[in-house]
Description:
3 helices, 3 strands
Amino acid sequence: MDELPNLMPIDEAAKQEGCSRTTIYRLVRLGLLETYRARGVDRRTYVDADALREVRAKPPLKKVVRVPK
């Protein structure tokens, strides 16, 4: 059985992790985090706090190749 994600509004997740909302939106745009929305009246966007913590602890780095001048 799949475990339910630890959902948290983006504002609260940013405060808890010590990062900005912009950082979270960037991670979403890069496909590293998923967003969730509740149906109905609640207009907030949620992220999985555990997934955010994991991405911030082990960021996917890409190798930068410098071209000599």
